[in-house]
Design brief:
nine-stranded mixed sheet; Structural Genomics Hypothetical 15.5 Kd Protein In mrcA-pckA Intergenic Region, Chain A; 27% strand; Alpha-Beta Plaits; four-stranded antiparallel sheet; alpha+beta; elongated; 3 domains; 245 residues
């Protein structure tokens, strides 16, 4: 079992967005930081950053935010962009304001375009992020598409063949699985993440995606009770399910 890392309180809380190190020292002097029920007045003190720290530490009377290494699932609404800089509503604005000041920063694990809704993972763990998005992982991602025209019936075979070429590309797509849900609705499961891939795949077979919603990454489903714009922190078991554990 690996030993928990230790951090100075001022550095830990500053990196978690609670303010500058000077701000943290001021909070400590005021008795506003407690650990295991006792006031922590020395912000230079080093503490172990364990998974149970939010249950043991309070700042200004509130439970500590999740420590570094967090991962969450967000139900991304339509019209929201996976970006820090673009105009309009951004996914990061759906998180608590303090979380947007964290270092390391919370980043999206891949992206969903502005007009796609559904399951979006976000984390401040760079190693985990790259493990999920790595082409070597070949994690399945499922999307429910509503189409402009009825399915013709041969799309499943075309997508499964592993020979479909997208416009402007020189390498065929890996095989993908199509599940027909209705005359103009289907679930498409892919293991790649090319630019606007699902929309371009249906365009390649003469159709147009009108709505697109991602409902699954790996073995992790978007819960039915997680409303658009809401998020949920994930635990080790959830992360294992992403990779099929």
């Amino acid at each position: 079992m690996s030993k928990a890392p230790t951090f100075r309180v001022d550095r830990l809380l500053a990196n978690m967005g609670y303010g500058s190190r000077r701000d943290i020292h001021a909070l400590a002097r005021l008795g506003a930081i407690t650990l295991d029920g006792a006031e922590l007045t020395d912000a230079d003190q080093r503490i172990a950053v364990t998974a149970d720290l939010p249950a043991r530490m309070r700042v200004d009377g509130q439970a500590l935010d999740p420590p570094p290494g967090l991962i969450l699932m967000l139900h991304k609404p339509l019209g929201v962009t996976c970006s820090h800089k673009e105009a309009g509503p951004l996914v990061y604005e759906l998180l608590p304001a303090r979380w947007r000041r964290r270092d390391p920063a919370i980043s999206t694990v891949g992206r969903l375009d502005k007009e796609t809704s559904g399951l979006l993972l976000m984390t401040d763990d760079g190693a985990l992020l790259h493990r999920i998005i790595s082409p070597k992982a070949k994690l399945a991602k499922s999307y429910v598409a509503t189409l402009a025209r009825p399915l013709k019936g041969d799309e499943g075979a075309v997508f499964a063949a592993g020979t479909l070429m997208l416009e402007g590309e020189e390498k065929p797509l890996l095989p993908a699985e199509l599940e027909v849900l209705g005359p103009t609705q289907a679930r498409l499961t892919i293991t790649e993440g090319r630019y606007h891939q699902v929309r371009r795949m249906f365009a390649a077979v003469g159709n147009h995606v009108e709505t697109l919603h991602r409902d699954r990454i790996g073995g992790l489903d978007l819960p039915a009770d997680l409303a658009p714009g809401r998020f949920r922190l994930l635990g080790a078991g959830d992360v294992a399910r992403i990779f099929g554990g």
